From TrEMBL:
Superkingdom, taxonomy of origin: Archaea
Ranges for domain CAAX prenyl protease 2/Lysostaphin resistance protein A-like: 106-191
UniProt GO BP: CAAX-box protein maturation
InterPro entries (alphabetical): Rce1/LyrA-like_dom
Bilayer-spanning residue ranges: 20-41, 132-150, 170-195
Molecular function terms, GO-annotated: endopeptidase activity
Annotated protein name in UniProt: CAAX prenyl protease 2/Lysostaphin resistance protein A-like domain-containing protein
Keywords, sorted A to Z: Membrane, Transmembrane, Transmembrane helix
């Protein structure tokens, strides 16, 4: 049954009519299924660990490979020193530049390399053997999905959801539309990148503090100090709260915002000069 206007496009074996609206609809359904499976796996793992105190079979570790010792995220740090916060500020300042570079690799390079390696290789092998196209493509896709569990923590994904999300490119390779599979892969990565950038923009927009800004603050001397992450609660003249490293209760000092974690702004003391070298 037709679903939207069709377009005749070249394939490995000739020409074929494709329906872009159908491809978009299938991509949306598979993406939703992939996200849902990922959520179910995470919740199931948490439930199993909570109920048993361990992962007795190692099954979820095989699927998601999320070692507890991985503390890459800022929120996992127990305490912050001034040096830690300066490093975090450098990370914040370079985030957009790094994301532009990684975005180019993710949207342009990765789709071509991954599709030609993990599905193009099996496809050529199937042509050589004159058969077994589907089993070979499935094996290549399973390996491709598994390797996503080895990514850095921020982009690590469980095997099964990634495989489900890659079913559309797999089908496109089966019917000979390899270049459409590359385009779908690139579009999928572009959407994921846009979501990540949107989340980061929202994290920064909802805070009154911007990394790199400086304030004169008075450190609270009424409550127990230090508080969260070994930092001291301090207040700006506008009565906004910052958490500052290496200060004394009751002191008034100049601080520079390093980052925001959750609803907290984290800062470190600086000299009165705005031109202080880092």
């Amino acid at each position: 049954m037709a679903f939207g206007p069709g377009i005749s496009v070249p394939t490995v074996a000739g020409a074929r009519v494709v329906y872009p609206a159908r491809i978009v609809a299938v991509w949306g359904a598979l993406t939703a299924a992939s996200v849902g499976l990922g959520y179910i796996i995470r919740r199931s793992k948490l439930w199993l660990v909570r109920e048993t105190g361990t992962d007795p079979f190692g099954w979820f570790n095989l699927l998601s490979r999320e070692p507890a010792a991985d503390t890459e995220n800022a929120e996992d740090t127990d305490t912050y020193s001034v040096a830690d916060l300066k490093e975090r500020l450098d990370w914040e300042r370079e985030w957009w530049r790094r994301k532009a570079r990684s975005g180019g690799r993710s949207v342009v390079v990765a789709p071509v390399v991954e599709e030609l390696t993990f599905r193009g290789g099996p496809f050529l092998l199937a042509l050589t053997l004159d058969g077994y196209r589907l089993p070979l493509l499935v094996c290549g896709s399973v390996l491709w999905a598994y390797l996503h569990t080895l990514n850095p923590r921020g982009s690590r994904r469980p095997t099964v959801p990634v495989f489900v999300g890659g079913l559309l490119p797999l089908y496109l390779w089966v019917v000979g539309l390899w270049w459409v599979a590359v385009l779908v892969h690139a579009a999928n990565n572009a959407v994921a990148m846009a979501v990540e950038i949107g989340r980061e923009w929202w994290r920064r927009w909802r805070h009154s503090f911007t990394p790199g800004e400086e304030y004169t603050v008075t450190v609270d001397d009424q409550g127990p100090q230090p508080e969260v992450h070994g930092l001291y609660q301090a207040h700006t003249p506008a009565n906004e709260t910052l958490h500052v490293a290496n200060v004394e209760p009751g002191a008034t000092t100049r601080v520079r915002v390093a980052t925001t974690v959750g609803f907290h702004g984290y800062a470190y003391p600086v000299a009165e000069s705005h031109d202080e070298s880092e």
